[in-house]
Design a protein that fits this description.
β1 and β2 form a beta hairpin. The protein contains 2 helices and 3 strands, in the order ββαβα. By secondary structure, it is of the alpha+beta class. It has a 3-stranded mixed β-sheet with strand order 1-2-3, sandwiched between helices.
C-alpha cells in the first residue's frame, strides 16, 4: 500500500504481510530506498501493529 501524509506530503509505503509471510528482497529494497528518501516505511502483520507503528513514528495520536 502507498499513500502520503496530508500535513506535509511525506510518502508512506506499507508492506502488508500475513502469517509467516516474509519480505522479498525487492520489497526490502523498496522500503530501504523510501526511508533513505525521507519517507515512512512500514511492514505490517496486522492493522493494530501498523497503527501503533505509524502513531509512534509520525507523531500522530489517534483521538
Amino acid at each position: 500500500m502507498i499513500g502520503f501524509r496530508k500535513r506535509d506530503g511525506v510518502f508512506i509505503g506499507i508492506e502488508v504481510k500475513a502469517g509467516r509471510d516474509q519480505l522479498r528482497p525487492e520489497q526490502k529494497q523498496f522500503l530501504d530506498e523510501l526511508k533513505a528518501a525521507g519517507g515512512l516505511a512500514f511492514v505490517a502483520h496486522s492493522f493494530a501493529q501498523f497503527q501503533q507503528s505509524f502513531e509512534h513514528r509520525s507523531g500522530f495520536a489517534h483521538p
